[in-house]
Write a structure and sequence with these properties.
alpha/beta, two-stranded antiparallel ribbon, 15 helices, 495 residues, 34% helix, 18% strand, single chain, Rossmann fold, globular, 2 domains
């Protein structure tokens, strides 16, 4: 590995008052690197910097931080796909996709996804897709080092459509300044980043005439009705039985992983367990929920027994839950007798709460298992390797953003961008879709994603590629899943 050579270049901006903080001026730091991916030595250039988004009259709106990687020795940029990547939250920086899956460096975890003793370690990422595509990691406003300009209301960016417009404006600016309009263009988003991706694909087409070649969704949620959580009770919304059905196979996956199923089920392969769970969820279980109070006592007891057998809890617990086992209740209940909870983002992880009573987790053990290493390693990497300096805290997951996120575009309705995605793909017949899901994901369960995809109304199913992995929301923390996901993404980008 060669030492990076660093050159800083400040973009030309109008003169500012001397007191203007430097992070509200444009700046780029460019460094050169070498790595090996898929057995090939690769030289590349990294650019860490910030662009200013401005009103048409020149008034500043936001300072957007990004990190970009481009392969050296490419004479014609139109031959190289360019991928714009971001995470979700809302309120999350792009560090997870950046240092977990796509970038040339990754945070070192063990094969199952557990972090080492703090502060952690960064290693070359043999699963990076930099060998086949250039990469741009975007941190939306209030995440990473991206900030609204002082005097500009920060909360105005914490808004479904305003967020899409700001990220779209950044992408337009990047393509123009780096001369990449002729390149094949892709988006990749994770979690709420998939919601953003679907909306953004439509916005880029209508606002800039930008026709994307593809969109890649990691742990997808396009229709919030499938995962609806009540902000007050944290349970599923009363009257919406869809999440109970769509979460059931994920519950079964967690029970199988922690060996809480009966002997016959436990002896089966995970995919066989899930095939049975899916059939039951979409059949007898859905019919029972639809029956409501018309369900006889005998049928209710029978269904409770079947649910309990499928997801590894007691029939008594299922009956007390009115046959409707809510997500957080399940995460607290599955290993309660063993003294543990299980993770929301990835149910393979176990946690310990102070009290075994109650129905809410104190913390998500799957998030706690990786956050420290990602935060420490990015803060070191961006300064040491990428030569980007800032005294701002790098907001890995800004806790102020999610509770205040504005969904006024969907008043009295669930957030749903599936129709935007369908319309965009209909208008752009060359745009393809890749969707990755983890079996152990309790935030955006794979069966809910499958339901949404099969209700898109697309007539050409060949344009949609769906893949599943034996891990959770961030399936790339699991080494076998990361390697398979890289292969699947490379295949998608190469088609």
């Amino acid at each position: 590995m060669t030492e990076p050579s660093s050159t800083d270049q400040a973009a030309q901006t109008p003169e500012e008052e001397p007191t203007t903080p430097p992070h509200f001026e444009e700046h780029l730091s460019t460094t050169s690197h070498r790595t090996r991916i898929a057995g090939e030595t690769l030289d590349y250039t990294a650019t860490a910097g910030r662009f200013l988004l401005t009103e048409e009259e020149g008034k500043k709106k936001a300072s957007f931080f990004f990190v970009a990687y481009s392969r050296d020795g490419v004479d014609d940029p139109s031959e190289r796909p360019i991928v714009f990547a971001f995470n979700g939250g809302p309120g999350s920086a792009s560090v997870w996709l950046h240092l977990g899956l796509l970038g040339p460096k990754r945070v070192l975890l063990d094969d199952e996804g557990n972090q080492p003793t703090p502060p952690g370690r960064l290693v070359d990422n043999s699963a990076s897709i930099l060998d086949v595509a250039d990469l741009v990691f975007i941190d939306p406003v209030s995440t990473g080092f991206t900030r609204a300009i002082p005097g500009k209301e920060e909360s105005s960016f914490h808004h479904f459509s305003k967020d899409i417009e700001a990220v779209g404006e950044f992408i337009h600016l990047y393509l123009s300044r780096f001369g990449r309009w002729a390149s094949p263009k892709y988006l990749i988003g994770e979690s709420y980043g998939t919601t953003r991706s679907a909306g953004l694909a439509g916005h880029l087409l209508t606002r800039y005439g930008m026709y994307l070649n593809g969109v890649m969704l990691i742990s997808s949620v396009l229709n919030f009705q499938t995962i609806a959580i009540d902000s007050k009770t944290h349970g599923f919304h009363r009257g919406n039985d869809l999440p109970y059905v769509l979460y059931l196979p994920a519950y079964a996956a967690a029970a199988w992983y922690h060996e809480k199923l009966g002997e016959d089920l436990q002896a089966l392969a995970l995919t066989e367990v899930l095939a049975q769970a899916e059939k039951f969820a979409a059949g007898d279980y859905m019919e029972a929920l639809w029956m409501g109070d018309r369900l006889s006592d005998d049928d209710r007891s029978s269904i409770a027994e079947m649910v309990a057998e499928t997801i590894g809890v007691s029939a008594e617990f299922v009956e007390r839950s009115d046959l409707r086992v809510e997500k957080f209740q399940f995460l607290k209940e599955l290993l309660r007798s063993d003294g543990y909870t299980v993770g929301r983002l990835d149910s393979r992880y176990k946690g310990v709460d102070r009290y075994l009573t109650g129905s809410m987790l104190e913390n998500d053990p799957s998030m706690d298992a990786i956050t420290g290493a990602y935060a420490a390693m990015f803060n070191d990497y961006v300064r040491r390797d990428l030569s980007y300096e800032s005294d701002l805290p790098y907001e890995v997951l800004n806790p102020k953003v999610f509770p205040a996120w504005n969904y006024e575009d969907f008043q009295n309705a669930y957030v749903d961008v599936s129709e935007t995605l369908r319309s965009t793909m209909t208008r752009n017949p060359h745009m393809r879709l890749f969707v990755a899901s983890g079996y152990f994901d309790m935030a955006t369960p794979y069966f809910a994603t499958d339901y949404t995809l099969h209700h898109l109304g697309l007539r050409e199913e060949s344009r949609v590629t769906e893949r599943r992995y034996e891990a959770g929301h961030m399936m790339y923390v699991h080494t076998p899943s990361r390697n398979q996901l890289r292969a699947d993404l490379v295949s998608f980008l190469s088609d």
